[in-house]
Amino acid sequence: MASSSSCRAWHCLLALFLLSSSAYSQLSPSFYAKSCPTLQLIVRATMIKALLAERRMGASLLRLHFHDCFVQGCDGSILLDDVGSFVGEKTAFPNVDSVRGYEVIDEIKKNVELLCPGIVSCADIAALAARDGTFLLGGPSWSVPLGRRDSTTASLTEANSDLPAPSLSLNLLIKAFDKKQLSPQDLTALSGAHTIGFSQCLNFRDHIYNGTNIDPAFATLRKRTCPAQGPNGDKNLAPFDVQTQLLFDNAYYRNLVAKRGLLNSDQVLFNGGSQDALVRQYVANPALFASDFVTAMIKMGNINPLTGTAGQIRRNCRVVNS
């Protein structure tokens, strides 16, 4: 009798442990509520300072989070430097001389470490910076699920293969997002991040010189600073959204309807295909876009996070703890 009751107690303990460990592995907006209650204030204050120095940084950090999540999941792997024999993701074709804002992540991490040493992951800091960048440029805000841990690895190969290229067709874009459990609706909503920020001539040259679905006046405007023959002008920047380049609004979709998408991968969302109707809905209803964007950002932030005891909390976002 005693053995069966102790066995039952053991089962209860096991069940409790499994429940708590599975809960532990889920992300939650209140993850740091006790361990680092000032976290969100520190991130917001550092982000305000960064955007006062350069408004474009809001767009840059939103993109950094996207480029992190699409490679090995949202694990801070993009932040790792090439050190000795360690090869990170920063030199991958979609990232090199292109992803920026690493020093702002360093600054946030430094400020967080002063008050909460060894508690908050770089992956979570990147997710919060992306949210604040969006909000501070006039976009929506949302509760960011937290509790990600930092990777001890990076993948140059996956960064080169899985980050969607600006030349992709709609079909290939849908496939690239589906690989990350993101729907075509998520793709179209997340692409709205291109309502802010800039792109380099080498990313849109082919579209403005050879694209068939582009407003001729817009193509002419962009050709002024993007010469036909690279590498001449490769790094020259143009805004995704000519009208409100650093305001997070729904103008991106109005541009698509007017055939003024900067990248081929922008304009394919409105080119007689499956996303045309949704693009028109986002033009007519900015609140719907904002709400779908938030839903998609939370979904993207949930791509394969390291939780529980997996990974580590890096002391320095650029290197694995020694």
From TrEMBL:
<keyword id="KW-0376">Hydrogen peroxide</keyword>
<keyword id="KW-0408">Iron</keyword>
<feature type="signal peptide">
    <location>
        <begin position="1"/>
        <end position="25"/>
    </location>
</feature>
<keyword id="KW-0479">Metal-binding</keyword>
<feature type="active site" description="Proton acceptor">
    <location>
        <position position="67"/>
    </location>
</feature>
<dbReference type="GO" id="GO:0042744">
    <property type="term" value="P:hydrogen peroxide catabolic process"/>
</dbReference>
<keyword id="KW-0732">Signal</keyword>
<dbReference type="InterPro" id="IPR019793">
    <property type="entry name" value="Peroxidases_heam-ligand_BS"/>
</dbReference>
<dbReference type="InterPro" id="IPR019794">
    <property type="entry name" value="Peroxidases_AS"/>
</dbReference>
<feature type="site" description="Transition state stabilizer">
    <location>
        <position position="63"/>
    </location>
</feature>
<comment type="similarity">
    <text>Belongs to the peroxidase family. Classical plant (class III) peroxidase subfamily.</text>
</comment>
<comment type="function">
    <text>Removal of H(2)O(2), oxidation of toxic reductants, biosynthesis and degradation of lignin, suberization, auxin catabolism, response to environmental stresses such as wounding, pathogen attack and oxidative stress.</text>
</comment>
<feature type="disulfide bond">
    <location>
        <begin position="201"/>
        <end position="226"/>
    </location>
</feature>
<feature type="binding site">
    <location>
        <position position="249"/>
    </location>
    <ligand>
        <name>Ca(2+) 2</name>
    </ligand>
</feature>
<keyword id="KW-0873">Pyrrolidone carboxylic acid</keyword>
<feature type="binding site">
    <location>
        <position position="71"/>
    </location>
    <ligand>
        <name>Ca(2+) 1</name>
    </ligand>
</feature>
<keyword id="KW-0106">Calcium</keyword>
<dbReference type="Pfam" id="PF00141">
    <property type="entry name" value="peroxidase"/>
</dbReference>
<feature type="binding site">
    <location>
        <position position="244"/>
    </location>
    <ligand>
        <name>Ca(2+) 2</name>
    </ligand>
</feature>
<dbReference type="GO" id="GO:0020037">
    <property type="term" value="F:heme binding"/>
</dbReference>
<dbReference type="InterPro" id="IPR010255">
    <property type="entry name" value="Haem_peroxidase_sf"/>
</dbReference>
<keyword id="KW-0349">Heme</keyword>
<dbReference type="InterPro" id="IPR002016">
    <property type="entry name" value="Haem_peroxidase"/>
</dbReference>
<keyword id="KW-0560">Oxidoreductase</keyword>
<feature type="binding site">
    <location>
        <position position="241"/>
    </location>
    <ligand>
        <name>Ca(2+) 2</name>
    </ligand>
</feature>
<dbReference type="GO" id="GO:0005576">
    <property type="term" value="C:extracellular region"/>
</dbReference>
<feature type="disulfide bond">
    <location>
        <begin position="122"/>
        <end position="317"/>
    </location>
</feature>
<feature type="disulfide bond">
    <location>
        <begin position="36"/>
        <end position="116"/>
    </location>
</feature>
<keyword id="KW-0964">Secreted</keyword>
<dbReference type="InterPro" id="IPR033905">
    <property type="entry name" value="Secretory_peroxidase"/>
</dbReference>
<dbReference type="GO" id="GO:0046872">
    <property type="term" value="F:metal ion binding"/>
</dbReference>
<feature type="disulfide bond">
    <location>
        <begin position="69"/>
        <end position="74"/>
    </location>
</feature>
<feature type="binding site">
    <location>
        <position position="77"/>
    </location>
    <ligand>
        <name>Ca(2+) 1</name>
    </ligand>
</feature>
<feature type="binding site">
    <location>
        <position position="75"/>
    </location>
    <ligand>
        <name>Ca(2+) 1</name>
    </ligand>
</feature>
<dbReference type="InterPro" id="IPR000823">
    <property type="entry name" value="Peroxidase_pln"/>
</dbReference>
<protein>
    <recommendedName>
        <fullName>Peroxidase</fullName>
        <ecNumber>1.11.1.7</ecNumber>
    </recommendedName>
</protein>
<feature type="binding site" description="axial binding residue">
    <location>
        <position position="194"/>
    </location>
    <ligand>
        <name>heme b</name>
    </ligand>
</feature>
<feature type="binding site">
    <location>
        <position position="195"/>
    </location>
    <ligand>
        <name>Ca(2+) 2</name>
    </ligand>
</feature>
<feature type="binding site">
    <location>
        <position position="89"/>
    </location>
    <ligand>
        <name>Ca(2+) 1</name>
    </ligand>
</feature>
<comment type="similarity">
    <text>Belongs to the peroxidase family. Ascorbate peroxidase subfamily.</text>
</comment>
<keyword id="KW-0325">Glycoprotein</keyword>
<feature type="binding site">
    <location>
        <position position="164"/>
    </location>
    <ligand>
        <name>substrate</name>
    </ligand>
</feature>
